[in-house]
Amino acid sequence: MVRGAGLERADLQQTAVARGRDPDACDGAMDLATLMTLFSPAFPTGGFAYSHGLEAAVREGRVADAGAVRGWVEVLLARGSGWNDLVLMAQAHRAAADGDKEALAGLAELATALSGSAERRRETLTLGAAFLAAARPWIRAEGAGWPLSGEGAEMPLPVVAGAVACHAGLPLAGSLVAYAHNLSASLVSAAVRLVPLGQSEWVTVLRDLSPAVVANARRAAGSALDELGSAALVSDIAAMRHETLSTRLFRS
């Protein structure tokens, strides 16, 4: 069974003690430091190589300035692939809290099926594998409650991120905000090279995206699996068209 409310604070403190951490740090600084590391652009997943279809949209003239970049990312977070990722991550966090390996395997299959195009499928699986490999220091011992199993199994990024965040004793709400911010920052970083955007422009776009990041993360924290769904067809089609571009900077 997947718990609707996720881990309670007492559960997180017990997890922290089991991981050899100061339980009082769960209320702020330690969690923040861990989230900033796991979801930093510097975390070695190779996310900088993917534009999630944005490159094709820029090439077609659909995204040509800072305002369009902001709107593009907001749509993804609210009703596109970004929203689906947040829902899947929330469900993975809850399933990991229950040690439900079967539920996690089902979520991995579902996340892969929702990819929408060959490049997005490769993107989420490649980044998921890289995130899992880089997060080993936080996993410590897979036999001690680590919920993911299956050597060589395909693990999409949101499922891996949710399971790792739970295993590290990180709260669901903060983990979702960090994931959404990382996705937004990655796309804006791609736009810097593609549109292009100036330094002050991309910083302003990131600032202006903060309300959407927080609002959609908060919405996903209370979401159910049947709230999955995408209404960002232009983005999905751009991701498909990217596969046939003759020259390109990004892998998706």
Oligomer: single chain
Helix-strand topology string: HHHHHHHHHHHH
The helix/strand class is mainly alpha
Question: Could you please say which CATH topology applies here?
Answer: Urease accessory protein UreF
Mean pLDDT, to the nearest integer, reads: 87
Taking the sheet with the most strands, its summary is: none
- Tally of domains: 1
Helix share bin: 55-70%
Count of runs of 4 or more consecutive helical residues: 12
Low-confidence stretches: 1-7
Name the CATH architecture: Orthogonal Bundle
Estimated share of beta-strand residues: under 5%
At the first level of CATH, the class is Mainly Alpha
Secondary structure blueprint with pairings:
Layout: H1 9-18, H2 29-38, H3 54-59, H4 66-79, H5 81-97, H6 101-113, H7 118-134, H8 136-139, H9 157-167, H10 172-194, H11 199-221, H12 233-242
Helix pairs in contact: 4-5, 4-10, 4-11, 5-6, 5-9, 5-10, 5-11, 7-9, 9-10, 10-11
Quick overview:
The chain has 252 residues and is mainly alpha-helical. It has helices at 9-18, 29-38, 54-59, 66-79, 81-97, 101-113, 118-134, 136-139, 157-167, 172-194, 199-221, 233-242. It contains 12 helices and no strands.
Overview of the molecule:
The protein is mostly helical. The chain has one domain: Urease accessory protein UreF (Orthogonal Bundle), CATH 1.10.4190.10. Helices cover 63% and strands 0% of the residues. The protein contains twelve helices and no strands. The protein has helices at 9-18, 29-38, 54-59, 66-79, 81-97, 101-113, 118-134, 136-139, 157-167, 172-194, 199-221, 233-242. It is globular, with a radius of gyration of 18 Å. The relative contact order is 0.21. Mean pLDDT is 87; it is low at 1-7.
